[in-house]
Amino acid sequence: MNLPFFIAKRYLFAKKSHNVINIISLISAVGIGIGSMALIVILSVYNGFDTLVKSFYQEYQPHFIITPQQGKSFHINTNSFDAVRAIEGIESLQPVVEEDVFVQYGDNQAIAQIKGVDSSYGRISGTDASVKEGEFKTFVGQTAHAIVGRELAATLRLRVRFLDPLELYFPSRNSTVSLLNPSGSLNSESLFPSGIIALNQEFDSKGIFIPVSVARQLLEYSDNEVTSLEIYLNREGEANSGNIEKQLHKILNGKSSKQDDETTTSLTIKNKFQQNETLYKMMRAEKFAVFLILFFVIVIVSVNIFGSLSMLIIDKKKDLQTYLCMGASKA
Questions:
Q1: HEC letters along 94-141
Q2: How many CB atoms lie within 10 A of CB 81?
Q3: Three-state SS at 186
Q4: Could you report the per-residue pLDDT of 31-57, keeping only the tens digit for each?
Q5: How far apart are CA 63 and CA 239, in angstroms?
Q6: 199 φ, ψ to 5°?
Q7: For the segment 297-312, what is each residue's pLDDT rounded down to a tens digit?
Q8: pTM for this one?
Q9: pLDDT at residue 233 above 80?
């Protein structure tokens, strides 16, 4: 076994008149080594980045979210949703009411997005762990409270221990606008801040959690009307999420559900991936593009190695004949 390696070493490193082939081979070998290393390192970085971004979103994202295909809201007091509540593996159904509103705190004003949630929402979704100041409480006694995004709180100059209430305004759907008293056509609610939360840049810049009952009153929704329904699974449900998703589609968008509930709106059911589909697709596309570029670099370098080895064999044909005559095998 030592003889073939000795001959190969002599051909690769010995000084010869035609050493340009050896130089090309050496450069190609170094190139493919660097290219392979770069491919592994960059793809590892992308995998880590992908995992990090997913962890930011999936920490508090529901396993499934139900939204109407048309319009802004739908009712959840139907036979179909009673069947959904009976599915094994579902831990909680969280009603949510979302809308953009005008907010004022003292002399500071901003446009914010309220998210009306149940009192158990912070514990079920895990968002209470992201509270940076105060507590995740939508009610303190009988008084409604709000949990404000960190950047929005900075814009409004709001702190938990301040005594001023947070004012929310939204145009009434049932009253006409009066030129003499424009403010009379606005619904308003006052809440005290109970916490400042940091979830992600999008929510932190404009998001506010408020009680779902206050959100319905501000938007003039009925007691069972929501803009979305978030579904959280227990451990058993997480292991069987695919089957639960099929059951949700069958119950909520099947023919039987439309016959049982004549007022049922066509609904969209999204899992965790579909809730951030654009983000995940973009990350996968970037990862694939980097892989493709580095793969072509390695292919080009490999072709160079193949070419240089072919030239080396052609250059050493006479030496090969000598070795064969001396009894060496083709291998």
A1: EEEEEEEEEEEECCEEEEEEEEEECCCHHHHHCHHHHEEEECCCCEEC
A2: 21
A3: strand
A4: 777 877 877 888 788 777 777 766 666
A5: 12
A6: -105, -65
A7: 778 777 777 777 777 7
A8: 0.72
A9: yes
* 327: alpha, beta or left? (left if phi > 0; alpha if psi -120 to 50): left
**What six digits make up the tokens of 105?**
């705190």
Residue with tokens 């396993």: 63
> Which sign does the torsion angle of CA 20, 24, 25, 26 carry?
positive
Q: Count Cβ neighbours within 10 Å for each residue of 245-277 and write b for 16 or more, e otherwise.
A: bebbeebbbeeebeeebeebbebebbbbeebbe
Q: Sketch the domain layout of the chain as residue ranges.
A: 27-61+286-331, 65-275
Distance in Å from the first CA to the final CA of the chain: 12
Amino acid at 76: I
Q: Is 63 left (phi over 0), alpha (psi -120 to 50) or beta?
A: alpha
Q: In angstroms, rounded to a whole number, what is the distance separating the alpha carbons of residues 330 and 7? A: 14
Burial class (CB within 10 angstroms; exposed 0-12, middle 13-18, buried 19+) of 183: exposed
What number of helices (H) and strands (E) belong to the chain? Answer: 13, 13
